[in-house]
Amino acid sequence: MKPETVIVNAGRDPEANHGIVNPPVYHASTVLFETLAALNGASGKDYRQVVYGRYGTPTTFALQEAMAALEGGDWAITCGSGKAAIATVLLAFLKAGDHVLITDSAYQPTRSLATGMLERFGVETTFYDPLIGAGIADLIQDNTRIVYTESPGSITFEIQDLPAIAEAAHARDAIVVCDNTWGAGYFYRPLTLGADISIQAATKYIVGHSDAMLGVATAREKHMDRLWHAFTTLGNNVGPDDAYLGQRGLRTLAVRLDRHHENAMKVATWLSERPDVIRVLHPALPDHPGHDIWRRDFTGASGLFGVEIKAADDDALAAMLDGLELFGMGYSWGGYESLIVPCDLSRARAVTPWQQEGLLLRLHVGLEDPDDLIADLDAGFRRLAAAA
Ligand SMILES: *Cc1c(COP(=O)(O)O)cnc(C)c1O
C-alpha cells in the first residue's frame, strides 16, 4: 500500500470497537484478572498484552502499530516526549565501557544527554561530521555500539548518507539509530535505508497541532526485545490522551506535509533571492550540503529550515521579530502554524565549527497562505533595515 493509505488505516480496528472509527481512549492503571492462572500468566513481555497501565493499553498499542507501519518496522514504543524516546533507545543498547558516535548536527538536548548522563555512566561519545558518509568506518572502535544519525541535522540541516553509514556500522556490529523527526516517516523512512531504529519527536508532525508531547521509536523485531525491556523498565509510556492525539494527528500527516513542503519551498526560494539574506539552509535547494542525497533518499521536504541574515544588532532583530503577525516565537515546531526563532550554535558543534557571518534564524513554515507569510517577513525585513 502507498504511504497515504497506510497513514489513514494503520492501527485502526473499528470492528473491535463497535464500528467507531478511532480507537478508544483507555484510562488505566489496574487491570483485573478473572483467575489466579490468568494473573500469573500475565508478563507484560507481549507487546499487546493488557497487564498494567504502564505497559500500555489498546490506545497506545494502536499508535505503536500505526507508527511501525508508517516507518516500515515491526513494532514501536511510545514515550512521553521525543527526548524520552531518545533516552530510552540509548539506555536500551548502551552499557558502561561502550562508545557511541553521534552526528555533530544532533539536536542539542541529545548531545547533552550523551555528554552528561551517559558519560557519568561510563559511556564515551565521539561527535562526527554529519557529511562523513562511508568515512565513519575510520571512527568505529571495537566498543562502538551505536552510530547515531539525524538527517537533516538540527539547525543546520545537513543530509546524511545513511546507507553508507549503516553499511560501515553493521560491518563492525554497531547499530544505527536515526532521529527522523523532520522526515516523519512520510518523506523519509530510515529503516528501509539501513537504520535499525527510527526515532521521532512525534510532538512535531505526528501530533501536528502543537497540543501534546509524544516520542516514538520504531524497530525491527530483532531489536524490539531490548527496546521493549528498556521502555517498560524506565516506565516511560505516554498517557492515553496524548497517545490518542498522536494517532489522530497521524491521519492527516500526508496532506499536511505535502502542503508544508510546498509553502516552505515558496518562502525559502523568496528568501534566497533577497540581498539581506546570506544563505538559506534548506535540503531541497540545489546548493545545500547533501542535496543530492536528499534527492536520492527523501520524497519531500518538510516545513522547517534555516536562514542566515546579514548581521543585525539585538534592537534591530527585536524590531523585526516582535512585529511579526503570523510567525510566532517559541520552541518546538511541526504544528499547523508558522514559527521563527534565532539560533545560537556556539555550544552545539564539536568537530564542525559553524562559520557564521550573520545571524541564524530557524523558520517553521505552517499551513497559512505562503504569500501572506512572505508579506509578514517582508515587513519584518523593512523594520530590520529601518532600525539598523
Ligand atoms: C523537538 C525535537 C526532539 C525532542 O522532542 P520533544 O518531544 O520536544 O522531547 C528531538 N529531536 C528533534 C530533531 C527535535 O526537533
Class based on secondary structure composition and strand pairing:
alpha/beta
CATH superfamily of the largest domain: Type I PLP-dependent aspartate aminotransferase-like (Major domain)
How confident overall, as mean pLDDT? 97
> DSSP helix count?
12
In short:
The chain is 36% helix and 15% strand. With 388 residues, the chain is of the alpha/beta class.
Set out the fold topology:
Blueprint: H1 3-9, H2 36-41, H3 58-71, E1 75-79, H4 82-93, E2 99-103, H5 108-120, E3 124-128, E4 144-150, H6 162-171, E5 175-179, E6 197-201, E7 215-219, H7 221-234, H8 240-250, H9 253-272, E8 277-281, H10 291-297, E9 304-309, H11 314-322, E10 339-342, E11 359-364, H12 370-387
Parallel strand pairs: 2-3, 2-4, 4-5, 5-6
Antiparallel strand pairs: 1-7, 6-7, 8-9, 9-11, 10-11
Helix pairs in contact: 3-8, 4-5, 4-7, 9-12, 11-12
This protein binds pyridoxal-5'-phosphate.
Structure commentary:
- This protein is of the alpha/beta class and 388 residues long.
- The protein has two domains: 3-250, Type I PLP-dependent aspartate aminotransferase-like (Major domain) (Aspartate Aminotransferase, domain 2, 3-Layer(aba) Sandwich); 254-387, Aspartate Aminotransferase, domain 1 (Alpha-Beta Complex).
- 36% of the residues lie in helices and 15% in strands.
- The chain is built from twelve helices and eleven strands.
- Strand 4, helix 6 (162-171) and strand 5 (175-179) form a beta-alpha-beta unit.
- The longest helix is centred in the last third of the chain and has 20 residues, at 253-272.
- The chain starts with a helix and ends with a helix.
- Residues 81-83, 107, 154, 179, 181, 201, 203-204, 213, 215, 332 line the site of pyridoxal-5'-phosphate.
